[in-house]
Amino acid sequence: MRLHRIELLTDTVTVDLPFHHQTTVVAGLDRLEAEALALEIVASVETGRPGLSADLSTQAGRRLEINRPLNGPAFAVDVDTRGDATADMTVGGIVHPLAALGITAAIRVTETDLAFAEQANDRVHRLAQLDQKQLWGLAITLAELEVEVARQTDDEVIGERISPEATSQIEQARADVELTLQRLEELSDQSIVAASSLVLISFAVAFITHPYVAIPFMLAAIAVAWRSWSWHKEHEAAISAEQEILQQFGLESYLDFQLRKVDALTNDTKQRRSTLMLAEKRRFALDQWHRLVGADVTLDWAATHRPTIATAASQPTSTSSDAEAAAASEAVSLALANRIRQATAHTEPSPLIVDDIFSAQGDAAVERLLWLVDHHCQQLQFVLLSSDPRVLLWGAERTIARQASILRLTDKADDQTVELDAAADVTVDSLPL
Question: How many angstroms separate the CA atoms of 130 and 126, rounded?
Fold first, then answer.
């Protein structure tokens, strides 16, 4: 996705900001103004506010206008067909171009991202100065203990003891089954004999006297048979209830329940001893790990950054300012490279709004950051909010080749003037606010 322009509309003023399809440098703003504009640009391709509209195109070449009037609902228009594209840009009942295009990565890059990178760089160099055999030997030991703890936890889940509450419910269900079975066995035979006798009596009475006289005997036989049938159903219901309770606690049968109780009694002491021993080993290894690397470095983080740590450890040790500057430059460039990787990971690459990450950086870091922008600007769009003279000079050089544009929102940018080659004819947009 590429952003062509945004429109900031209020009751009294309208500001239209055009963007270059590759790189736009926005200059002339102080820190708060730049931050506010960055948030407005991001909002224009998200849910936005009334009066904040955008003109954008997708990777497939579809040109869209996202209109948000001051008074009225937001809507989208296909520029080529002039058809309504609101439904295509709506997610959850709200016009949200980024979400509609499947873009989930953050599109704004700030100094905070670089701060995290510098912190990670400090940890990398701290670990690189340690004995690598001791470091990774301890890491492997701790990882093996973590795996063993996880395996033991799985075994405990599979062979866990039955809780007192579960035992009580299962035993009660078993008692109900046995009670209904006992009643069925004791009374079923008697019911069959009684029902048969009543049927024979009814036939005899009907033959000797009148059939109507036999009706009470037939009804009595039916009642006895129905009662016998109800005892069978009560027994079946008790069995079903017991099976449901067993399944609720992960048991297949009452025999499985009895076997689990026996296993718990025989293995309880051994399992407890093994668990305590393993927990003590893990606690000791984790304590040694924190003593060696510090409490801010986890095993997962160290394993993820192992190639970087190994590379740093193989480099000659240096305390010069040049080496520190090079390390800092590498850290911030890796941070921006990671954000570029996230932006291009989608089917629809997202633009990156780079909110003045340059001013606090040294020349080496700025050079590497701008190289990344220059290298990837054909894959995705960059909007650089910065009045840093180094960025403006770089942007002016790219403007000559029509690879970028500079958008000045005031007459001067931090009272600095960018001097270009006398033969260079550079057009720079200037928009007063």
Answer: 7
| Beta sheet of 2-9, edge-to-edge order | 14-18, 2-9, 52-57, 63-67, 75-78
Where does the pLDDT of residue 392 fall: very low under 50, low under 70, confident under 90, or very high at 90 and above? very high
pLDDT, tens digit (0-9, with 9 covering 90-100), for 318-341 = 544 555 556 566 667 777 887 888
Distance in angstroms (rounded) separating the CA atoms of residues 382 and 107: 10
What six digits make up the tokens of 400? 């000559």
Cα four-point dihedral sign 391, 394, 398, 403: negative
DSSP codes, 273-327: HHHHHHHHHHHHHHHHHHHHH-TT--HHHHHHTHHHHHHHHHSPP--SHHHHHHH
pLDDT for 66: 93
pLDDT score at 119: 63
What integer pLDDT is reported at residue 315 of this predicted model? 66
Token reading at 293: 């690397």
pLDDT digits (tens, 9 = 90+) for 198-233: 777 777 777 777 777 667 777 777 777 777 777 778
> Which token pair is 76?
């989208």
User: Measured in whole angstroms, how far is the alpha carbon of residue 231 from the centre of its chain?
Assistant: 55
DSSP letter for 385, please: E
Collapsed DSSP state (helix, strand, coil) of residue 207: helix
Give the residue-averaged pLDDT of 36-59: 91
Q: What's the per-residue H, E or C state across 111-147? A: HHHHHHHHHHHHHHHHHHCCCHHHHHHHHHHHHHHHH
Centre a 10 Å sphere on the Cβ of residue 68 and count the other Cβ atoms it contains: 22
Question: What's the residue count for the chain?
Answer: 433
8 A C-beta contact, residue 388 and residue 409 = no
Q: Output the CA–CA distances (angstroms, integers) from residue 419 to 105, 356, 416, 422, in the order listed.
A: 37, 21, 10, 8
Q: For residue 251, what are its two tokens?
A: 């048991």
pLDDT tens per residue across span 61-99: 899 999 999 888 999 999 999 999 999 999 989 999 999
Cross-strand bridge partners of residue 7: 16, 53
Q: Which residue has the tokens 């000791």?
A: 284
Nearest C-alpha neighbor of 357 from the set 369, 373, 343 = 369
What six digits make up the tokens of 232?
């069978």
Q: For all residues of the chain together, what is the average pLDDT?
A: 79
Helix (H/G/I), strand (E/B), else coil: 345: coil
**Distance (Å, rounded) from C-alpha 89 to C-alpha 360?**
38
Task: Compute how many other C-beta atoms are within 10 angstroms of the C-beta atom of residue 1.
Answer: 22
Closest by CA position to 159, among listed 246, 256, 244:
256
Query: What is the Rg, in whole angstroms, of the alpha carbon atoms belonging to the chain?
Result: 39
